[in-house]
Amino acid sequence: MFGLSSGHAFPGCSCCRPLFSGLDAVAGSPRSMTPTNIEALGESRRAGVPKSDGPVIDCHGHYTTEPQELLDWRKRQIAGINDPSQMPSVDSLRISDDQLRASVEGAQLRLQRERGTSVTIFSPRASGMSHHIGDASVSAAWSRVSNDLIYRLTQLYPKNFAGVCQLPQSPGTAPDNCIGELVRCVTELGFVGCNLNPDPTGGYWTEPPLTDRWWYPLYEKMVELDVPAMIHVSAAANRAFHTTGSHYINGDTTAFMQFLMSDLFKDFPTLRFIIPHGGGAIPYHWGRYRGIAQDQKKPPLSELVLKNIFFDTCVYHQPGIDLLTRVIPAENILFASEMLGAVKGIDPETGHNYDDTRRYIEGSTILTPDEKRAVFAGNARRVYSRMATLPFGNP
Amino acid sequence: MFGLSSGHAFPGCSCCRPLFSGLDAVAGSPRSMTPTNIEALGESRRAGVPKSDGPVIDCHGHYTTEPQELLDWRKRQIAGINDPSQMPSVDSLRISDDQLRASVEGAQLRLQRERGTSVTIFSPRASGMSHHIGDASVSAAWSRVSNDLIYRLTQLYPKNFAGVCQLPQSPGTAPDNCIGELVRCVTELGFVGCNLNPDPTGGYWTEPPLTDRWWYPLYEKMVELDVPAMIHVSAAANRAFHTTGSHYINGDTTAFMQFLMSDLFKDFPTLRFIIPHGGGAIPYHWGRYRGIAQDQKKPPLSELVLKNIFFDTCVYHQPGIDLLTRVIPAENILFASEMLGAVKGIDPETGHNYDDTRRYIEGSTILTPDEKRAVFAGNARRVYSRMATLPFGNP
């Protein structure tokens, strides 16, 4: 049911294309792990960007500028599902450090400099996870090669990137199978969190809700490791949905509502989730959710979920950010851009990139200076608590 | 796949319970079609409700206070799917006019008076449609009895209710099958529109997108009859979703994104859709959608969709309504409350019912007085153009 024929899927769709294909041509340099830090703060910035008086942690960045070799490896892997003779080994992927550098220096790192971001919490391309393709063994190998590239980037640019891992989820497979890769990424590779897909089917939603005990072994390990998960679906395999336009946003809304109706955080008081894309539809309908919880005789949302759930700022216009900051406590908001991500253009209404979300936070008349500092860095340090263990300390 | 075992479904779930069960007991009076109009404007209102200087059309009301006889009929119908001997006929439903009056006078009509609503565009309970139950013949009979009750209410209270019909959709059945019931309701019963379910499966989303030619025959008839459709999913049969908390909102977001990616309105320039619940997540992420359209080289959303798509005001807090009115042109916003609907309680932050949405419009500092009049009535008259044919003329 969830094979290659199920609608559009990475790597063929427009959501999943490399964004900077010109960069893919750089190759062949000798591998080197010498760190090349890009100091964002203190560098000159594009004219007109408002100043910040502290560090800026972008908690939601994806490696969407992968070298072509990675995409080719994935193509062979997908071909190998039906023709095992084509299945590549994890070790067969060859990408040089220079290729990795070239893939980010004109893209994520340039934008970090231009926009004044100190560090990006960085994970594999979200739509690329495509857990609906193949079985758990396919997801395991694909997660491993994807996470290993993130790790190498965190080693090449230890002040610019903190790693977050893709999990080897697969439809119908209990999430216990993700524990090994999570432990490897956190304890061996120094990652600070994971991305958790509430719907590995890509839009058919046949897994148990996130509040089902099906997921508990993974949560136990997250708590033990003290790492949060960003709730993030992947490419839509169901043609009803547009990956970045509706499937992502619906995934966020669905997950929040599952949490609201549950007692999950009684069982896991320290479990932490980030709901990206500004929390989907949730803040816009905050009155609806407060009212539904009240009708269900549940405590106020501040007690019920806001000790455990956080929203990012991937909302691409000032009115949306203003709504978010009006209704959600500042301590529950983490700065993020989702770049290079869903929207690439320049907003003709502002003359700036839609995803230059820092401007909306800087431009907020709702947040106090202290709250802006918390949104820009303090909250991310608290939620991604293992950031403190990384080379840059507490950016 | 979409039978009774598919998760929770009307009439067992909490979303689907009668709200005023005490009213169901009134029965046995002789049937009478004598109209009993309740004049909302000019009557005394609850203290503290701001004044309006014109009529108020609520474009989104559901008959959620149905007499028990209707729910019992539906139970027998569901039982009849597996045991044809129990299948009731359409004609076997017996509900008196007094029962109908009792079902709305202490509920919808009382709230119309208290909140100063002139007329409600009224349709069967949305979650009750449950198109995933049974086959097209089951949906046909259920739609007919449900719509007939709405008709009788419009005859009993011709100044208070305008009818909108449920369609006999069924998973996998081409929507051509809905044309007969649509024509009957509009031409024989005087209805002004229909509710269209983009996902008759109740959360598995296996139908073609709303922009597929699968739906075109129905659209042709809508255009010919000059009636709009409110896009409205029904009860969630998929346990991943909460009916009113995520499935409804996701349905709205999904439909809009389908429209955005299509050329549907080139084929049907006069086709009109209302996306309820404030447009799902759309206004909150308006920058995202403007940016996605731009990346796709499409015209601005004002040209691409806003001649054909309208949003209601079922957003249950002032910040949400303020966001809606900041980003969506006033001419695309129709007043609605969704009562008696998803949220029944009183907001402790305001002391008023969450779904008393008129207060948020009255309280808006963004809309001008002219725009408020358009939101309250003028836009509904334009979109539901057949309102002008009803006994109350143009409220």
TrEMBL record, chains A, B:
One of its GO terms (molecular function) is hydrolase activity. Keywords: Lyase. It comes from the Bacteria. InterPro entries: ACMSD, Amidohydro-rel, Metal_Hydrolase. GO terms for cellular component: cytoplasm. SUPFAM superfamilies: Metallo-dependent hydrolases (SSF51556). One of its GO terms (biological process) is secondary metabolic process. Residues 57-385 form the Amidohydrolase-related domain. PANTHER family: 2-AMINO-3-CARBOXYLMUCONATE-6-SEMIALDEHYDE DECARBOXYLASE (PTHR21240), ISO-OROTATE DECARBOXYLASE (EUROFUNG) (PTHR21240:SF28). This is 4-oxalomesaconate hydratase. It comes from Bradyrhizobium canariense.
